[in-house]
Design goal:
Elements: H1 2-132
Amino acid sequence: MRAMLTQALNENASLRSEIHVVQESNRLLREDNIVSSAAYQVRQIEILRAHVFLLTLKRHSDRMDTHCNALQSTHADLAMEVQQTAKERQVAENAIMTFEQKLKKHLDNAREISRKMLLEHEARYHYHDDVDGQVN
């Protein structure tokens, strides 16, 4: 009986040792679980921050797109105005050139008429001098 009691005490001690190992293992698992849970929460916060950052970037990108589109539209309008102004300038330059040519013709005609009138006047004047007997 003593042998049985000793065996029972040994088994009891062995079971207590195994229970202690299981309890220690359970405690370590709980600690690991707490650390893992904290790490998971930190990761979730990092993910949320990344989402907020991406949303902010998207909002800025959308604003930039809107601004770029407005600038492109303004550029297109200005380019059309520049083309129209260039056409108008060309028309004005052509009109000036035509006017200058007409003016030159009129001046040439006026000079020719003036020259002829001067010659006629001189001829008449000399003719009168010849008639009166006076020569200049």
